[in-house]
């Protein structure tokens, strides 16, 4: 039975009160159990986590830092036994290494990292594949699971698809342009219909330092991607992150990476057919004709939404037949028209403006300079596209647009309707004839985010939405088995406003459309990532990223310095243990489906 005040909402739970403190908070009647923390053992033989004795060798066997995307691949079709796949997006050395940051006279000073610390950082990046099992209603990690794996910034990878072997991908370590080392800044991702794990490489520009040789042919390409940003110190110890020494290395990042979780020895594959951008994620769905459609956001102000349609159909009866589906297909970029229609423009070398006259000499060029190809095609410049999630129940697609405070009043369009868009919005796409492979469709704004009690913000939450239920900065999202939309946020964590990031349940259907309720909120300093529901809707996995992060300061340094918020020691609450990012398993007390 639904609560009497639900007004047709598809969600039934008592919402959490918004606020900010050192703990996480969850709707009444649910349990939130810490499943995996940074440093927990993932491989057998991993040493117990000791923050005072961190080594790359230990870290490469332990759960990595800053858990972001969470996926679940059932084993034997079970919702209670499977492989949890988790991205480790980035590292926060100021939270990882005690004593690195000193605050002198209120000014922050962050010391240089040693090679050993950089090596720990590199091992803390990438992803984790780990077997988990629910016993007596509680999830446990199977630390000796035969599929368990850590993927890091040093894991050997293959480069496949149309750009593989291109001269622009060749380096002194790899004259073939087909063998990359490692993956970095994996934000969101996906699980394919054939049960592989997708890691999306996002802000790769931060890892590169140094200057390209004068007049180098990649200069315009790198400028479009903000390379190099120099936020990390890896180039001090590894030449491949120094543009002056290895000018093509940045072309080997910014890809979609596919991992065969059933073979822990298999090299992950960078699938160039899906383009090179700052990929947020790659969520997919099987279309009516059996082809598989991947939706991709490029998380940058004024960048684009993409979709990739495989050439061949998915074969549900033969896993092996699907293992190279991601090497051939058509990438499209979205154009949102003012009248609520849209086109998906194919990004095919030789078609339209994607020709030699415009500097594209092959499909590899189109994919390596995916953003410039989108520019040439006249795609719509969006307010930071994050997760893009197809909904197989209602046939729609949801686009999280996190914010864009740099959009000027004369740059507003129907799909990005607010100048200085501080709180972001969500677009709902209806593909023509409900066909996910369609090259045209319709769209509307589901929600303009922000505080509805401040008229100037222009938020469009329903009037049923309480003071706890509104949010800004949508980022990751999930659709559960019932077809309900759940949105997690990045950027609401603010002591001044008294709110944190969290997980919100957002109605999309009927009279309750655009009603939002707060289900879970994170401790101070953290961002909410994940979320992911098991196929039985009885567990929601959420990822608490960078708890205790106190903000950054770029003044007076070539690199940023960061503050630590010492008011939380989540999740251990021990004085000798640092804050630790962690994945949390949420279940209903006593069992059952969530929020029904
Ligand atoms: Fe890593 Fe776009 O959030
Ligand atoms: Ca993030
Ligand atoms: Ca994100
Ligand atoms: Ca974000």
TrEMBL record:
Name the record gives this protein: PhoX family phosphatase
Cited InterPro entries: PhoX, TAT_signal
Pfam family, one: PhoX
Organism lineage: Bacteria, Pseudomonadati, Pseudomonadota, Alphaproteobacteria, Hyphomicrobiales
């Amino acid at each position: 039975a639904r609560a009497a005040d639900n007004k047709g909402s598809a969600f039934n739970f008592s919402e959490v009160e918004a606020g900010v403190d050192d703990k996480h908070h969850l709707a009444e009647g649910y349990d939130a159990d810490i499943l995996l923390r940074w440093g927990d053992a993932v491989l057998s033989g991993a040493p117990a986590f000791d923050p005072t004795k961190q080594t790359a060798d230990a870290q490469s066997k332990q759960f990595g830092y800053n858990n972001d995307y969470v996926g679940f691949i059932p084993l034997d079709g079970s919702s209670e036994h499977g492989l949890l796949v988790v991205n480790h997006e980035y590292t926060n050395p100021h939270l990882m290494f005690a004593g690195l940051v000193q605050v002198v006279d209120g000014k922050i000073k962050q010391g240089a990292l040693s090679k050993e610390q950089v090596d720990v950082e590199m091992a803390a990046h990438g992803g984790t594949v780990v077997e988990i099992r629910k016993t007596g209603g509680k999830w446990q990690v199977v630390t000796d699971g035969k599929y368990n794996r850590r993927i890091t910034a040093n894991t050997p990878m293959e480069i496949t698809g149309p750009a593989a072997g291109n001269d622009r991908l060749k380096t002194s370590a790899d004259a073939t342009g087909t063998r990359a080392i490692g993956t970095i800044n994996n934000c969101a991702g996906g699980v394919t219909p054939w049960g592989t794990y997708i890691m999306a490489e996002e802000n790769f520009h931060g890892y590169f330092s140094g200057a390209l040789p004068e007049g180098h042919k990649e200069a315009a390409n790198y400028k479009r991607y903000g390379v190099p940003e120099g936020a990390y110190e890896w180039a001090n110890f590894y030449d491949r992150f120094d543009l002056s020494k290895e000018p093509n290395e940045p072309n080997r990042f910014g890809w979609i990476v596919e991992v065969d979780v059933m073979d822990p020895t298999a090299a992950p594959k960078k699938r160039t057919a899906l383009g090179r951008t700052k990929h947020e994620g790659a969520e997919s769905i099987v279309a009516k004709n059996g082809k598989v459609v991947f939706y991709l956001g490029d998380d940058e102000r004024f960048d684009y939404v993409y979709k990739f349609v495989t050439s061949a159909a998915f074969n549900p009866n033969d896993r092996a037949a699907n293992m190279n589906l991601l090497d051939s297909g058509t990438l499209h970029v979205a154009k949102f028209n003012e009248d609520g229609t849209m086109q998906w423009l194919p990004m095919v070398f030789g078609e339209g403006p994607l020709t030699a006259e415009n500097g594209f000499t092959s499909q590899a060029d189109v994919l390596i300079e995916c953003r410039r190809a989108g520019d040439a095609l006249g795609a719509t410049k969006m307010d930071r596209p994050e997760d893009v999630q197809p909904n197989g129940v209602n046939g729609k697609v949801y686009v999280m647009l996190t914010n864009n405070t740099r959009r000027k009043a004369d740059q507003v369009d129907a799909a990005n309707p607010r100048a200085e868009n501080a709180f972001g919005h969500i677009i709902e796409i209806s593909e023509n004839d409900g066909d996910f492979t369609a090259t045209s469709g319709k769209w509307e704004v589901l929600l303009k985010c922000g505080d509805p009690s401040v008229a100037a913000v222009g938020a469009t939450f329903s009037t049923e939405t309480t003071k706890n239920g509104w949010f800004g900065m949508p980022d990751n999202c999930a659709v559960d088995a019932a077809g309900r939309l759940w949105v997690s946020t990045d950027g609401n964590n603010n002591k001044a406003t008294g709110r944190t990031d969290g997980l919100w349940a957002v109605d999309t259907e009927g009279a309750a459309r655009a009603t939002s309720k707060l289900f879970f909120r994170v401790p101070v300093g953290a961002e909410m990532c994940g979320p992911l529901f098991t196929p039985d809707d009885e567990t929601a996995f959420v990822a608490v990223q960078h708890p205790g992060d106190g903000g950054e300061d770029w003044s007076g340094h070539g690199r940023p310095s960061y503050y630590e918020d010492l008011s939380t020691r989540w999740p251990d609450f021990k004085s000798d243990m640092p804050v630790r990012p962690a994945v949390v398993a949420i279940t209903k007390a006593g069992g059952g489906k969530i929020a029904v």
